[in-house]
Amino acid sequence: MAGGRDALDGWVAATALPPLTVATGTEVLARDGTLLRAFPVADGRWRLAPGPVDEGFIADLLAYEDGRFYDHAGIDPVAVLRAGAQALAAGHVVSGASTLTMQVARLLEEGPTGTAAGKIRQARVALALERRLSKAQILDLYLRLAPYGGNLEGVRAASLAWFGKEPRRLTPAEAALLIALPQSPEARRPDRDPQAAQAARDRVLTRLAAAGALSADSARAAMREPVPTRRRDFPALAPHLTARLAAAAAPGARIETTIDAGLQRAAERLARRAVAGMAGQVSAAMVLADHRSGEILAEVGGADWADTARAGFVDLTQAPRSPGSTLKPFIYALAFDDGLAHPETLIEDRPVAFGTWHPQNFDRAFRGTVSVRQALTLSLNIPVVSLTEALGPERLLATLRRTGARVALPGAGAPGLAVSLGGLGISLEDLVQAYAALARMGRPVSLSALAGRAHPREGQLFGAVAAWQVADILSRIAPPPGGTPNRIAYKTGTSYGHRDALAVGFDGRHVAGVWLGRADGTPVPGAFGGEIAAPVLFELFDRIGAERAPLPPPPPATLILPNARLPQPLQRFRPRDAAFAEAPPGGPELTFPPDGAQVEVPEGGLTVKLRGGVPPFTWLANGAPVMVGTRARESLLSLPAAGFVTLTVLDAEGRSASAQVRLSF
């Protein structure tokens, strides 16, 4: 007796077990934990980690398949004796003696079920499994591996495919069907033979009621519930984003994102509606983020990822495209910050040559003398090119790169003035990230759809005053028909040849961008950002609902004055060549503090020194005047806070000098 037991123990101990690690598909989850998209395993099977499973289903499964699951060691001798007695009495097999552990053994090895050798092998592996694993681990393997027809494995994949829901809560009818299908998954497939599926389900319900696991009334009600007759698609929200995240992760990863599933659905519907009826394979892309946290809430890479005619597989949030006029706000912010201009500064919109380049406005008309506010509101080209010449196009590129944007220039040489009108490549996601910095009063942030990955970036692009002044102008641009005025600050853009139509905007919490065009970059005649992208942007903001926030009030240092009351150098913008041609030599030069210095400021204020220039002088900090009309070349400036600050001095001839320093108190 003892020898036989020892021999059995040795036989079980020597069992070569199959691999116990079961591959499951990668999952990408929304911010609330719901499934955005799942991916099959390498061989194409849909097999997912079970996750939370309805406790009633587990109880019914054990009651039907293996009532003594927690009492046996892999083989149930009571079930073996019962099955043998029933077979002898009836002359054929009436019930099986296979335990749930034996079924797991068969599923792990994908072994045969109808041969004596196969049954012995299953029994041996089952005994070995019980020694190696806990009951919970064995049950988990069954919930992962049980077949449910076609390429469906595991209770979660089955529940999603047949019921379109997670298996957290199942009706008695649903639970019974999921118990019945693994016994004969192909013959009972509901989409192929719903009558066979229903009959098998009802037999499970009848047996559960007879065993007292289900009331007779509940069983009868469950039998009246129809079985599904088609297999549902697995969730595939944010298909471009989820594919990108899954490709960068290990197989079987569980990827948590910041995507809001409700906003994502609304954005995808909006994208499809935006291109409906548009000829020429036009697609759409969108990015919506919370600029306070940097979390991306919705991202649409294309109008329909399955539409090959529209090249739906191309992720158009990542493709470098021309931004058109959407970069103009950054040029104005830099000009305000440097003291080159103020929203009420007068500037010329007249024919002018920049070398051999003669830029024109979009409508080929000129407005003469306009305010800077009007120039940005009307998206005039001549004024912004003049400001870019004064700033230097490299300054714009450096500012964009400090936001984290990847900028592609058309040639290998130095950037030209055409960058101010969209003569470069930038992705929609990077453009929205740049606008997030504008919305955050000049403080850049890295946007991300991965939970915990968004973060503020170092530095300050321009002062809060300059950022607010630009946002104030953009918020007063007339909205598209039906849009709410003064709700968001936004700018539209149309690239050369009508290849790209864009609209980007923000409120006090959210920032978003919309792009429409063709994936191959060919023109879309008549496509203007203001006409086709702006209405979509406003609709996207309408989907935010109660979470939307108003734009912030002006910072305390903001100079809100009409043109006539501005300091004389800010009343009219003078191009660099005009200033140097008409003014006497020797513009102002900052001698202290030097550019890039870190300065500890004493209680009395910061001492600044200059040489050259024609008094009186105007001093600005981050674009806001802090001292006006002084004739001294050494002054004491009272500055409000520590951190990065751009100091600018203007002389009576409109010439300027600037330095960016870091202050500590």
Automatic annotation (TrEMBL):
Residues 56-208 form the Glycosyl transferase family domain. This is peptidoglycan glycosyltransferase. InterPro entries: Beta-lactam/transpept-like (IPR012338), Glyco_trans_51 (IPR001264), Glycosyltr_51/Transpeptidase (IPR050396), Lysozyme-like_dom_sf (IPR023346), PBP_1c (IPR011815), PBP_C (IPR009647), PBP_transglycosylase (IPR036950), PCN-bd_Tpept (IPR001460). SUPFAM superfamilies: beta-lactamase/transpeptidase-like, Lysozyme-like. Residues 582-661 form the Penicillin-binding C-terminal domain. One of its GO terms (cellular component) is outer membrane-bounded periplasmic space. It comes from Paenirhodobacter huangdaonensis. It catalyses: [GlcNAc-(1->4)-Mur2Ac(oyl-L-Ala-gamma-D-Glu-L-Lys-D-Ala-D-Ala)](n)-di-trans,octa-cis-undecaprenyl diphosphate + beta-D-GlcNAc-(1->4)-Mur2Ac(oyl-L-Ala-gamma-D-Glu-L-Lys-D-Ala-D-Ala)-di-trans,octa-cis-undecaprenyl diphosphate = [GlcNAc-(1->4)-Mur2Ac(oyl-L-Ala-gamma-D-Glu-L-Lys-D-Ala-D-Ala)](n+1)-di-trans,octa-cis-undecaprenyl diphosphate + di-trans,octa-cis-undecaprenyl diphosphate + H(+).
